[in-house]
């Protein structure tokens, strides 16, 4: 699909042809925190670095509601205030469907690293309210600087009209 080698994940285009089709969408069910963490943590370390590494106990303490796809290959969560957290997929091309679904479920805000994720959330109505430069002191444990660079950290809110 790509004709040139790209150095940064943010250089990849979002798949504009991946239309959200609720009839073909993966079904999601409320998940146990321990199972959610076990499946989430099976991601490749360089992609897992994009997620805050909450433990099952931390999810329980924050009152998060966690969801896993029926095939157990993707998931997401909500804090009680509907802040979207821990969006992940073990398969490519599910991101847009997950984000569209979470927007329909009432997601109010999300935080992310990098331009590609900022654009993905932007397509679902999330708008940047704060952009922070990369902070070496907060760098994720398995961060791949060669593959992912030093992206900005974004705080986004969903504006519903």
UniProtKB/TrEMBL annotation:
This is N-acetyltransferase domain-containing protein. It comes from Candidatus Falkowbacteria bacterium RIFOXYC2_FULL_48_21.
């Amino acid at each position: 699909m790509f004709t040139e080698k790209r150095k940064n994940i943010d250089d990849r285009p979002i798949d504009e042809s991946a239309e959200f089709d609720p009839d073909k969408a993966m079904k999601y069910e409320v998940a146990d925190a321990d199972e959610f963490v076990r499946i989430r943590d099976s991601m490749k370390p360089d992609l897992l670095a994009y997620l805050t590494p909450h433990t099952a106990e931390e999810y329980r303490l924050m009152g998060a509601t966690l969801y896993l796809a029926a095939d157990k290959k993707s998931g997401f969560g909500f804090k009680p205030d509907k802040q979207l957290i821990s969006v992940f997929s073990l398969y490519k091309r599910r991101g847009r469907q997950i984000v569209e679904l979470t927007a329909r479920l009432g997601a109010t805000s999300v935080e992310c690293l990098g331009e590609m994720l900022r654009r993905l959330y932007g397509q679902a109505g999330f708008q940047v309210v704060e952009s922070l430069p990369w902070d070496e002191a907060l760098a994720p444990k398995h961060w791949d600087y060669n593959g992912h660079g030093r992206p900005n950290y974004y705080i986004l809110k969903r504006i519903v009209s």
